[in-house]
Amino acid sequence: MTTFEGKLASINYKYIESRGPIIFFNHGGHPTFQNIEYWTPLIDIMKKYCSPVLIDAPGHGLSEYRDGNNKIDAIREFINYFMNTHDGEFGIVGRSAGGRISVNLLQGMNYLGLIAPAGVDELNWKSNISIIWDMKDPVIPFSRINTFKNMNSKIFVVGKPDFEVNKYIISDKKGTHIPEIEYPELFDLFMQALVE
Fold first, then answer.
1. Those residues with Cβ within 8 angstroms of residue 60's Cβ, 6 or more apart along the chain or in another chain
2. Which of 20, 74, 132, 182 is 20 to 30 A away from residue 92, measured at CA?
3. What is the pTM (predicted TM-score) of this model?
4. How many CA atoms lie within 13 A of 27 on its CB side?
């Protein structure tokens, strides 16, 4: 892991150079369970499609605020630094609260992926979006998918919705807020669609 010493925060991150575009991954908002390590079970899938950059948001993992407490501005400072020091196409994936952060960091991005995004009520994005969600999500209601249904969305769902999606799987499990961890085969399809 590496640390970016910015003006607003000290950002801990892990860059895994692999192939394809460079994709930034923003975890959710739970202060104990959400950090870089959250993504560990999914790294092999990520590397099939991109060169992932896993970010510890300020206040999570080893990242700390320096000046103020605006996560979006602190992560933007890091992403701008990273994009200025690396060549290639870039994208961003946000899960849960990381979705709200990610949709505020779209400048210079070619790809957008959202996993059960929290607080995303509208979005000004013209390119494709890859989305994964559990219809029985106990944290973020699936009804929020309506924000994305009329966009260029590639939607992957646990459960069978009453509208057309790219792929759905039926599960007997209780609803989950971590479909990418519980259903890695769906995450694989999500990643493939993200970089198409």
1. 27, 31, 34, 35
2. 182
3. 0.94
4. 27
The residues, ordered by sequence, that sit 6+ positions from 91 with a Cβ below 8 Å of its Cβ are: 21, 22, 23, 24, 50, 109, 110, 111, 112, 113, 194, 195
- pLDDT tens digits for 68-104? 668 899 999 999 999 999 999 999 999 999 999 999 9
CB 79 within 8 A of CB 105: yes
* 3-class state of residue 82 by DSSP: helix
Residues with Cβ within 8 Å of 99's Cβ and at least 6 positions away in sequence, in order, are: 26, 114, 115, 116, 117, 118, 119, 120
First to last CA, the chain: 28
pLDDT in tens, 156-187: 999 999 999 999 999 988 899 999 999 999 99
| E-assigned strand segments in the chain | 2-5, 9-15, 22-26, 51-55, 64-65, 90-95, 111-115, 129-134, 153-158, 167-169
* Chain-centre distance for alpha carbon 152: 17
Residue with tokens 């192939």: 19
Q: Look up residue 24 and give its two tokens.
A: 């930034």
44 SS3 class: helix
Taking alpha carbons only, the member of 94, 129, 4 closest to residue 58 is: 4
- C-alpha span between 18 and 67 (Å, rounded): 33
